[in-house]
## 1
Amino acid sequence: MCLDNEIGSPKIIVFGENHHNTLGLIRSLGEIGLFSYLVLVNSNGLYPFVAKSRYIKKVWIVDNVHDGLGVILSAFNEEECKPLIFPTYDSEVKILGVNFEKMKDKFILPAIIDRKWTLEECLNKEFMRTLAQSIGLNTPQSWVVDCSEEVNLPQELIYPCVVKAIDSSSSPKNYTIHQSERSLLESINELSKYCDIVQIQEFIFKKTEVILLGWSDGKGTTVIPCLMDKIREYPRYFGTTGLGRVTKNIEEYIQVDKVYEYINRMGYSGLFSVEFLLSDREAYFLEINLRNDGNGYLPTYGGVNLPYQWYLAMTDNQLILSSLPKYINHDFIMMREFSDIMIPIKYGYSYFKWFKDYLHVDCFLYWNKKDKMPYFYYLFNKIFRCITRILK
């Protein structure tokens, strides 16, 4: 492995969307002194606020993942040291997986190490569910339906239920609870514009939802320093976390040894997050994200820098890696502030109570006193777009 005394060698490429997923990863690496080359897919119509981070060496802004891959292959094709690629969205993970064979000799990227399945197969939600089930994890009852032709729903289908594209990289994540066949068929018809196969799952009435965050080298070493317990989310039921509690006491929620077994059996190398629903009686495996999670900065705040640790593992720097902590050093409260403010706006939650909650937050996903500009650009863009809508 190519290493020298200059921190930041080999080069680090962050490949992702204009979103706090990408920003949190850049900040985690930057805070340890590893500045990134950013290939930013600006598909959400927002001003590219992520590109304003102080931890970026150079940025390319592209319209889609195919153009982004082209930038990577042309700009980093002749490096003496293999660059590391960190994807932050499912579409970026998928295109790297599809092109893995032609990239593996020139780049270090997330991969399935010495296993019979591909990274693309591991992105399949039914593959995730059956693998989880095979090692003893509970999963919601599920059905796979072909929607490329006339849809025939299974007779044993249970309502209420939800429907998802079998591959989350190919469609929007606008989930709805369906109480009837008519409603379900309408959603399947909409999803058929993006995919040919969908997964229908029974709807679990949850007590809470938790997300485990970690990294693995694909060879038996897996680190899971904490989980994030959702206190509230926006939109309700299927939204991203607004307010959450981050804790290292994982066993209070989940049989974490089963999660280690899942990752190791898969043979995955890279950053990941695993989502579970907790009802009154059971914990249900939902899915695994084979990339940096939107909450991926939280372990960094708690003292465990996941991207840096995977970087060390991939560059064979075991001496430093072995000295680093494997669990966060304290529990804390997090907030994704631009989502959570929608709770009082949309659902009537008291603004006074929300502000009290805000004052007790330890870690925000947008605001960061060490890296302020992305926050202000995001805020000003939101304000500008609101004013523009009002004036129309």
## 2
Amino acid sequence: MDVVLASHGPDAVRAAVREVRPELIVAPMLKSALPEDVWQEHTCLVVHPGPPGDRGPSSLDWAIAEEASEWGVTVLQAEAAMDAGDIWADGSFPVPPAGKGDVYRGEVSDAAVAAVLLAVRRYADGSFKPRPQSDPGTRVVWRDFFRQEQRRIDWENDSTATVLRKLRGADSQPGVLDELCGREVFLHGGHPEDRLRGQPGELLATRSGALCRATRDGAVWIPELRPRKNSGDPAPFRRPAASVLASFPAPPGSGPGMPGSNDRPYWLPEIAVPLELPPNRTTWSDIRYRQRDDIGFLFFSFPSGAMSTNHCRRLLAAYRYALTRSTSVLVLGGARDFFSNGIHLNVIEASSDPAGESWTNLVAMNDLVEAVLRTTDRLVVAALGGNAAAGGVMLALAADEVWCRTGSVLNPHYRNMGLYGSEYWTYSLPRRVGAETAERLTSEALPVSAATAERIGLVDRLVPVPSQEFTGEVERLAAEVAGDPDLARRITAKATARHADELQRPLAEYRRSELARMRAVFFDPQAPYHELRSAFVRKNPTGSARPLAHGGAG
């Protein structure tokens, strides 16, 4: 088995096929067509994120726009016409009220994995005949590319529900093109607001980097903005909405206000909400705390799982608040989609001092991880409803137990970004998987499935439920742990073990050693990290087209 990244172009695909001579080719996510000579000479199965008969490049966009309650995935044999090949397998799933990217990584991914495995089994069997789409039972529907004109929000006339549907259908790509303060930007993400109101289209407030904007009958929160590439903005990629808006001229009549900053526009109020929101509130916040009996739940959800300096500091403050509450079990995470992918490369790339911001962000991330590692008076559980990478994995490993939804993928390494790594990985990773496996994971720099993560000890418990059911299942499992008569002994034992580890080698030494190596990279203008970071943020292909053959990039 081998992997080739189609983003490196058709020649890379052809070269890999010539060398490997595969019996079967599977394309789980294509943004461009397979080379004709490849699919003519080899059986190629393509995953289409739509039900049998659905064709076109914007399948999931249309499903969300048309409020489909159920959607599907189809495994097709590649041929000349787009999505027109014979059907090897298919599957269906309920469409949740979530962003397109979230649904793709959750429900679509789960259904696609099941369908691909079935298709591969059928191919291996040799007797299965794929179903032509010309069969009477298949209704063929062509759906055009979903254009920005169809996504455009009419702030004067669209209801809040319509605005949210348009925002969710374009998240995480391509966003909804709109105009703010005379500048064209793409809006990313959308969440309802229950109290703030204003004239349709009016900018009302900021909160933790997000922007609140009034609709005809309510208001919505927009977490991120992306300037157009031709706008002249030096950072034309997704960033916290308030920081993008802060770089725009203030609207006429805004007044002097408070002194401006790089984080938010001075002319809008910052409207905070408490960590513990009343159950009747419907508003956006990226960090929430809830308590049920003697179990604390600290939920957090950051776009793309990226954690800026501000995210890290606010989550640390929330964690310290959670520690003041009388609980025996504290659950970190527990929401669907990304757990954490570590430091915020987009914010770093947009900074006037990327090296300095890299350092500040990393120190804040280390402070958070250290707080979790030093918690000895209760059991801490990291609940991963989605993917995690780099420092985000190490944040999870700082907990006593790691629970992972079966569809999640972990990347416990830093090498692809040209970094040694930090967040106490030299302590947390070897103590879980052993020194040899830790070395292999960080040097090979390959994704790890949830099942493999459990097998090697990276994860303690698999949670085999759909994304939409993850939070409820985590709450049920946490109640079981809290009710375990052995819990008090476990907490005492973990405190004893932490004390013994500290005597053997203090956490401060791990921190100093890791940060010294990271600082040397951050402040070296010639270090590959800077070019790799920029390429990643600006979505320029880097590294090897065949990561399995070359043991990772970076």
